[in-house]
Amino acid sequence: MKQISILSCLVALVASSSIFAQNYSTSYHFSNHKVFYQTNGLHYDLFNEYEYDNQFGAYRYLPTLQSIRYNRVDALFVGVGSDFADPNSEILNIGGVDFDGFIGYSTGQKDWQYRASANKAFGNWLIVGGELTNSSATNDLWRTGLSENSITTLVAGYDYHDYYKAEGYGVFSEITLGRFVNIGASYNYTTYSTLENSTEYSLFGDGNIGRLNPALDPSADVVAQESIGMRLTLNKKGYTKGIITSKFLAEAELSDAGFNNDFNYNKFEITSLNYLKLDDHTLFKFRVKAGSITGDVPEFKNFALGGIGSLRATGYKFYRGNRMFMSNAEIVFGDLWNYDDGELEINGLYLTLFLDSGWTDFVNSSSNDPFSGFESLEFQTLTHNVGAGIGTGFVRIEVATPVAGSEGFTSLWVRLNPTF
Fold first, then answer.
1. Structural domain boundaries of the chain?
2. What is this structure's pTM?
C-alpha cells in the first residue's frame, strides 16, 4: 500500500493544483482569464510558437513534426504543408472538415515522407478525425524543441533526439468539457522501424552527431503495434488567473488490450507544469514528470533521464527504467514581467537558479500493477543536479553540477528555447 499511496498522492497533488489554481469557473470573461505564453525563446520570437508546450497541443497519438528540419537520420528534410503544431492549423476546409499535413523529401533517408490528417469539429466540445503517417519521428520533444534541435545539429553538430520511422494510421477524438478539461482517445496501428545515421555534416565542430541512433530493441528492428491511446489535459491552453498558471497532462498507451502485438505493454505518464509569480521580477517554475510501464516493452519505449532539458549535469539518457520520476524547479529573476496580461516577457538579461531531481528503476515486467516499484522512491534515492543560468530573450547559458552523492559532471549548456 505504501507504493500506491506515494504515486496516488503525487497524482492528486499535481492534478488538484492544475484545477484549483485556475479558479475553476467558466463565468469569467476572457479579459480576466489570459492565455499564458512564455516569450523567452525561439518558439515565440522566430518559429511562431512551434515549440511551446507541444505535448499539450491538439490531441495526437504520435508527436508533433515539422515540414522543414535537419537531424542525423533525415539530414535535410524539406517539405510543404502544415506542421501539426498549431491546433487551429489547416491546409484545406471542405464542408467543415479540416485537412492538415505535409509531404516532403528526406535527403538522408532518400525517401518521401508524409503525414495527413482530417478532422471534423462538432460545436466547441467534440472533434473526431483520422490520420495517416509515414515519417521519421522522435519521443524527445520534451527535452529540446524541434527548431532548436535542428539548429544545434546543423551548426554545432549536437543532435539531442533519438529517432524511429513510424508508418500507420489512426482514428481519434477529443472532448472539451468547459474551459479547462480535455479528454482524448484514439485507436492506432503503427509499424515502427529502426533508422540509421545518414549524415555527420555540421558547420562547426563534430559535436555528438556521430552518436549512433539506437535500435528499437535489441531483438527487433521492426515492431508492429496496435494500441489504444488515452489522454486527460487540464488547462491545455494555459489560462492564467492571478499569480498562478498550472497545466496537467495524463497519458496512457494501451498495447496490452487483447491485440496480437509484437510487444504487449501498457505505458502511463503524467506531466505537470506550474508557474508562480513571486513578485514583479521573480517567477518560480516547477515541472513534474512521472511514468510507469507494465508488460513486455521494446527498449525505445522505456523512460530515460539525463542530459539536456532533464538532469542537466548527467550523461545523456544515463538513467533508464520502466518506472520514472523527475522534477525541475527553477527560480527566474528578470527585468520586466507582464504576467498579469498572460505573457511572460523578459527585457534584457535574466538570471536563473535551478534544481533537477530524477529517479528511474526497472521493475519485474511480469507485474501488471503500474504502482509497484515506487516504494523505493524517496528523496535520498533521487539524483540531484543544481545550477545557474543567464540569458536574454534569444539565448540562455546554463551551468549545472551534480549534488554530492549523485553521479554526473559539471556541464555547460547553450540553450535557445528551454522547453518548460
1. 1-53+265-420, 56-237
2. 0.86
